[in-house]
Amino acid sequence: MHDLTRCVQPPAVSHDGFSSLAVPTYRASTIVYDDPLAFAQRSERGLDGYTYGLHGTPTTRTLEAQLTALHGGERTVLVPSGQAAVAITMLAVLKPGDKVLIPDNVYPPVRSLCADYLAPRGISHEAYDPLIGAGIADLIDSNTKLVWTESPGSATLEVQDVPAIARAARARGVLTGCDNTWAGPLLFKPLAHGVDFAIEALTKYVGGHSDLLLGSITVRDLALRKALKGALGVLGIGVSPDEVALALRGIETMGVRMAHSGRVARDFAERLQRAPAVARVLHPALPSCPGHEIWTRDFSGASAVFSIVIRPEFKERIYPALGQLRLFAIGASWGGTHSLIAPMDVTADRTVRPWNAAEGLVRLSIGLEEPGELWEDLSRFLAALQAG
Ligand SMILES: *Cc1c(COP(=O)(O)O)cnc(C)c1O
């Protein structure tokens, strides 16, 4: 063999005796076939076959299978972000003339997707009160094809009666989707409550280290998996096995990370209720959070993201008080090992249940730092708020 050929033909080495606990990272654009007939018939390999790197490698299939099992679904597809998981689901389901219902507290870029991208293409939307429950039936008309849910919702954390919404939609032949990013499959399983599409921003608790972007869509119905595959194929969307390898590592510790930071968050949420500058704490585990009784009924635990509502007289001190924090980093994309805090302005995004703009809103995500030191940091924030 010529040296130049040697350079492109790595020698086959023995795998005998090699057994690792890590999932190998298989990278590929090209998939190689045994013979021309196999290549010519590659489209017959079906939903799970390997045909082209964009459509999956054993690495991506492993995470998909793991999420499918956790959700009690049939199949999962991976996409490049949580936002992509919502967008791909809507693009796979909705056609011009159709309508999608979205909760008023939906992740803000989803509202923009509906208003700025889907609406000009003839797909309409309507925001609904996240606490509507079975009352969603009154908003479903003959054009409604999808009811979106997000529970608890972004920033204000209202918990939705997802089972009641899914029942009402199903009775009218309407599909439902649930953005389950706050709870993840360990704390809530949307498919078991009648939802058709369970989506997650794996960027958050599965990744768990603020260093990757990935999303997933899990379904029970293979016809929906086929529709998703169709959309992904023509849009040219796939995920990097390297991102997936990070997620496969992150998911191994998700249970202990979430249990720890969920416990600390709940303790902090209770203590923060007593701070003079705090009007209410919005954590689903507290009775002051709208939908708390549904959280108690449907969820098996609490995660570490919650918000505090600041009384109007302290609102203008929020920015300088945030400047006093030393451990909490200011930023979005929660669910990592570092605790995060961020001021939120939801006024423009609440069209059904108006938000009292006089109050301040601050969102926290508790990480894995020593809880005593974290509380000292929060105490500095509270002292600065109240010093004004
Ligand atoms: C972060 C988040 C998303 C988007 O996830 P990305 O991976 O950052 O695109 C979607 N939904 C919810 C509820 C989120 O918190």
UniProtKB/TrEMBL annotation:
GO terms under biological process: L-cysteine catabolic process to pyruvate; transsulfuration
Keywords noted in UniProt: Lyase, Pyridoxal phosphate
One Pfam family, short name: Cys_Met_Meta_PP
InterPro entries noted in UniProt: Cys/Met-Metab_PyrdxlP-dep_enz (IPR000277), Cys_b_lyase_bac (IPR006233), Cys_met_metab_PP (IPR054542), PyrdxlP-dep_Trfase (IPR015424), PyrdxlP-dep_Trfase_major (IPR015421), PyrdxlP-dep_Trfase_small (IPR015422)
Claim: DNA-binding is one of the keywords in the record: no
Family classification: Belongs to the trans-sulfuration enzymes family.
Name under which the protein is recorded: Cystathionine beta-lyase
Source species: Bradyrhizobium oligotrophicum S58
